[in-house]
Amino acid sequence: MPVLNFTVNGVPRTVHLEEGRVMLSSVLRDSLGLTGTKVGCGTGQCGSCTVVLNGRAVTSCTTPAEKCEGADVLTIEALAEGGVLHPIQQAFVDAGAIQCGFCTPGLIMRLYALLTVNPDATDDILAEEINKHLCRCTGYEAILAAARLARERMKK
């Protein structure tokens, strides 16, 4: 049985992988109980499963777990601290960009990866990143407003 050693949300983890192709989303949800990472389409098209892998936003449903050996993975569970939402999370609440919430963790993680390295991302860049996600509830205007608000809050 293959073994995966990696860091998740700042904690070193060791996971025994089942034989065959196992995706990062399955390890996070099934082995580690981190259910904030949602799996919608299973093909990387909807973006709901997005996490930050070594500083980059990736769709975890298409990322083979074995490729994460020694990697650093950040999930939505790591953003809030002491019951206080991360500025990006709070921006989604304040902008009314949350309905059912299924796509929200992936959107937040993608924006986190972007705004951590590019806090001055233009509206066009924000829209380009949001367009990598499928939301069936809120419409994208509220999500774009949340992204703009998050950008301003991340600069502080």
From TrEMBL:
Transmembrane stretches, by residue range? Answer: none
The record's annotation in Pfam families points to: Fer2, Fer2_2
Name the Enzyme Commission number(s) assigned to this protein. Answer: 1.2.5.3
Alphabetized GO MF terms: 2 iron, 2 sulfur cluster binding; carbon-monoxide oxygenase activity; metal ion binding
| Domain annotation 2Fe-2S ferredoxin-type: ranges | 2-79
Keywords noted in UniProt = 2Fe-2S, Iron, Iron-sulfur, Metal-binding, Oxidoreductase
List the InterPro entries.
2Fe-2S-bd, 2Fe-2S-bd_dom_sf, 2Fe-2S_ferredoxin-like_sf, 2Fe-2S_ferredoxin-type, 2Fe2S_fd_BS, Beta-grasp_dom_sf, Diverse_Oxidoreductases
This chain belongs to the protein called Carbon monoxide dehydrogenase small chain
Q: Which organism is it from?
A: bioreactor metagenome
What's the source species' lineage?
Answer: unclassified sequences, metagenomes, ecological metagenomes
